[in-house]
Amino acid sequence: MGNETATATAAANKADTGLARALAWIGSGPKRLLIGGRWVEAASGKTFEVINPSTEELLCHVAEANSADIDAAVAAARHAFDNSSWVGMSPHARTRALLRIADQIDRHADELAAIETLDNGMPLWFSTAVATTAADIFRYYGGWCTKILGSTIPSDASGFVYTLREPLGVCGQIIPWNVPILMASIKLANALCCGNTLILKPAELACLTSLRLAELIQETDLPPGVINMLPGFGATAGAALALHPDVDKIAFTGSTAIGKQIVQASTSNLKKVTLELGGKSPNVIFADADLDKAVQAAVKTFCGNSGQVCSAGTRLFVHESVHDEVSERVTRLAATYTVGDPLAPDTKLGPLISAKQRDRVLSYIEAGQAGGASLQLGGSQWSGRGYFVAPAVFDGVTNGMRIAQEEIFGPVLSIIPFRDEDDAVFKGNDTTYGLSAAVWTRDVARAHKVARALKAGRVWINTYGEADPAMPFGGYKQSGWGREFGQESIDAYTQVKAVMLRM
Ligand code: NAP
Ligand code: MG
Known about the structure:
The chain is α/β, with parallel strands linked by helices and 503 residues long.
């Protein structure tokens, strides 16, 4: 047996172990809500079903939180904020607490990855990478605990003026189903490192890794009530959290439409709000780019996680002189992307999250054709079980078409030619969104010029989709308010107190 084969076999065995542990945990009975350090049924006694999107089979039942449970969780989080050792603890102790969570994630990474794949449908290689990133996020925020600084303000000799950066209090957090373990880790680690307590509501369509993560965090001995985990539906549990008068901040990741409702609900008590919303990101290829790399990345970004990624480069702008070549190469490469069982190592695209999401994506493929765009690839219905959609590539797209303006959240690419730099920037910015963008060129001056001109919270040059917890992430325009990661995210989970002393 060659070294490569031995490594592959060892990796497969390791994955099997994770899968076995994932199945054992999922099969161990209905999942409950975490409120005040205890796992409890929903007050209503209701549960909902969790479905495996690649088989359409029932995985398990989960307690369905509603407003009564949210009330109980907010009370528990408030009590923990006001009374537990969590808030006044030494920053070094808080760092150690976050690092312990990171170690827990690493120890259970295979299991978490397999749970994510069974629940969400993403390929196992992808969920494995994501679980590792989740641990890194806790380490990143663990490092911040000792670096959340106030300042001294110049004053006359008999005075002393300084600022303290203090936690906000009770944070409500709402996340989507697309990369749940990552979304949960970002929210939890950021709030915890700043000394807040929190209530997290995962999306009901994929909530299992959030629940397992909460169990693993409980094992690290956080005081009861510091984290509360309440799966439930958005219209009930989510809305109750956003409206709650004793929640100090709401951090929401999801669609722009629901983000607007969150803002309205937040006026009940003027809670602080941060929003990570949708995108329709431009990926701009100039004629002088390394086309091999650009084509690879263009396909990877619109197919990654079956297109269910907020920052996906779904609008591919190509200089007219290389448009035909790039369009042809992108289509040919996308056709080789394997769709199927997310547990199989060579699968590039698993299923979409639900039948509803699949039908929505298929309806956009129909709308693209009806609107006059030319479908180069994809579009046929998947026969058999699972909510699969193969990559679809549209050429001959104009910016006014629905497929070029609306977030599809599926593996659908729109290719649009441009004339020159100004045309690329104008078309790239012609959207209500502003989450991400990319530019491909060997001309350094042009790269920086276009990066500045594109209205997006993150711009990549000669790469796409690479992430680092130290890089701020968030939206221009209707893609959001505030930033996750970086100093900006510390500011978003703390508030400043100015103190004046007269001696
Ligand atoms: P969504 O429908 O907006 O839901 C997001 C979360 O909000 C879910 O937990 C949902 O609960 C909850 N929710 C729904 N209605 C609510 C309400 N009235 N009040 C409070 N909470 C409510 O979005 P999605 O379809 O799950 O996720 C896809 C969207 O998320 C896309 O637009 C994508 O771009 C965006 N996203 C953005 C980022 C980013 O960082 N910018 C990252 C990932 C995804 P239930 O689903 O359980 O009902
Ligand atoms: Mg949903």
